[in-house]
Each structure stands twice: as structure tokens, then as C-alpha cells.
Amino acid sequence: MKKIIALTCLLSAFVLNAKAETKVLLAVGDVKSQTLLIEEGQVAHCLTLIDSYNQQIGSLEIEIEGKDGWCKNLPTAKNVFFNFTFYHILMICIIALTFYKIFNKKDIWMIIFYITMFFYIEDYLWFIYNPFYTYKKYSKEFIPRHKHWFLGQPIENYICYFIIMYFISYYF
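Given the sequence above, the corresponding C-alpha cells read:
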């Protein structure tokens, strides 16, 4: 796990330094960064940034939550908003504000697209990277917090698929 975290940190550094003209812009979330990424066809830089950020947050959550997940044994308020713990509400706010700052009001729908993609990937990676689950246990039998499954995937994943595919067809 520590090797994965180290590699994703290196990947993040690489992504942020991939092009001289985008290095500082991505790091500080300047308004020009989104324009450069889209206009120059550098969507891959955005997606790589999201992927590496995903791996780091997912790995951090595995370290914090361990085998139980969903903050089951952590001292945080439970069911603050629907099923979410106070920890998860704070994490969602941090992620949303991070993407808002990176894309700096470029387009609210683009921000929603990236946030949706982030949470879809992060949730999947949490199970895949977590040594108590791994890919072999990615099923309804071992993951009770996802109540409804269809064709081997939680229903929430299909909702994310549709949102992501809609935005890809609209923007790209």
C-alpha cells in the first residue's frame, strides 16, 4: 500500500509539472488552467490529476477506516445526512472545494462531471486497494453498504456512468 501511495504522489508531481505552461496554473487553480486544458486538448492531464488524487484519497481513507469502512468504528457522528457520517460530509466538502478551485468557476457542470468521476473511481479503488476486500471480494456478498447491485456493480455506479457519459457526449 505504501508503494502505491508513493507512486501516486510521484505521478501527481509529474502531472503538475508535465507542461511548463500548466504547471503553476494547475497548482494554484488559476482561471486559465481549465481553458488551457480544454482548448489545447489536454483533458488527459485533468483526468490523470483526478486519478492520482483519487488514489491518494482512497489510500488515505483505507488507512483511516481499515477493514470496516464507512467510519464504522471511528469517533464521528453517524447518519448526519442520509447514510453519510460527519467525516464523509467533510471529505465531500474538501473534494468539491478542491475541484471548484482547480476549475475556478469555468462551468459548474464541468465541475460536477469531475466530482462525479472522482467519487465513482474513489469508491471503487477503496475496495480494490483495501487488503481486506480486493478485487475478488468486490461483490454484494462482501459489501453490504451498497444495498442494490446489478450485473456485478452497485446501482450507484450506473448512476455515475450515466452522468459521466452524458457529460462526455455534451462536452467532448
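Residues 31 and 104 are 5 Å apart (CA to CA). Try to locate this feature in the C-alpha cell string yourself.
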